[in-house]
Amino acid sequence: AGVTPPTRTRSQNFDPSADPDAEFDTLDEPVWDTIRRDLRLVGAKFARVLKPDQNKQLLRDWDLWGPLFICVLLSLLLQGGVGGPHFTEVFSITFFGSCIVTANTKLLGGTISIFQSICVLGYCLLPLAVAAIGCKFVAFSSSPSIKLTIKLVITAVGFGWAIFASMGFLAGSQPEKRRLLIIYPVVLFYFVVSWLTLSYAS
């Protein structure tokens, strides 16, 4: 009788980045392994936003965990203060704002799915979340003029980085003749979040 070689399930030593198109089942995978793998993938997508390139992994392996985390983080950072927005207000602007921009993209003939667009717009809020954290530290400065200048520079860099990263991922998914009509709401969305960051991250 022949010896049956040991079988290995897809969940053991499986690297999704090595074969992104492969299907695999996590039903037999330990819960901690699933959480650790998902966290690793989310971290890799954060890294791609901070260092944008033409890799389409963010579109191919979309998820909503990263955008949800960033929306919650921004809401916590920008809530409160004198005349500041509430948690739900910031969360609604960031999350539902990306949904509205996505709907505009689809109505104008965008070739990516709704969830792919929300994923990209959400992940690309990361530079603005980093800017909000930076503005929190600047708030300890004693000089108001210096504090405002530094906050303005930090927020402007985050704003530009968010647009640059999102355009890199969304390139090629927009109709050529309607590209400006699609890009304008994206820029407006990140501008509103940048304004909130500049005004209330203190």
Automatic annotation (TrEMBL):
Pfam families in the record: Yip1 (PF04893)
An annotated GO BP: endoplasmic reticulum to Golgi vesicle-mediated transport
Domain Yip1: residue ranges: 51-196
Topology of this chain in the membrane: Multi-pass membrane protein
UniProt region (Disordered), positions on chain: 1-24
Primary residence: Golgi
Subcellular localization, as worded in the UniProt entry: Golgi apparatus membrane; Membrane
Biased composition (Polar residues): 1-15
Gene Ontology terms: cellular component: Golgi membrane; trans-Golgi network
Membrane listed as a keyword: yes
Record keywords: Membrane, Transmembrane, Transmembrane helix
Residues spanning the membrane: 64-84, 90-108, 120-140, 152-170, 182-201
Name of protein: Protein YIPF
InterPro entries, A to Z: Yip1/4-like (IPR045231), Yip1_dom (IPR006977)
Provenance organism: Acrobeloides nanus
Similarity-based family: Belongs to the YIP1 family.
